[in-house]
Amino acid sequence: MLGLHDIQYLYEFLFWLFTFLILRLVWHKPTVRLIYGYVVAGFNLFAIIMYTLSSLSGQISSLDAFSFGFLHAMVSTVMLTVIYKEIKIENAKKQTS
Fold this sequence. Notes:
Largest sheet: none
Number of helices: 3
Shape: flat
Distance between the termini: 52 Å
């Protein structure tokens, strides 16, 4: 399979394919987008906690933990901002219609 000897890649591809197809069916609902934003922010918060714990236990350097934590904090902020703005724009369109 394209030189890959581990079937995990196939499972990951199928997982993301099914996730994409399911989200495509329900993405038009504002509550789905909001829940998706919260879930992504939650996963990023969990990643920040794990990087902090890894740094405190000495598994990675503190600068690496800070940089990865900062990256995940920015992803969470951007994701929630985009979701809120998109819902706000959509509500404004509904009111003018």
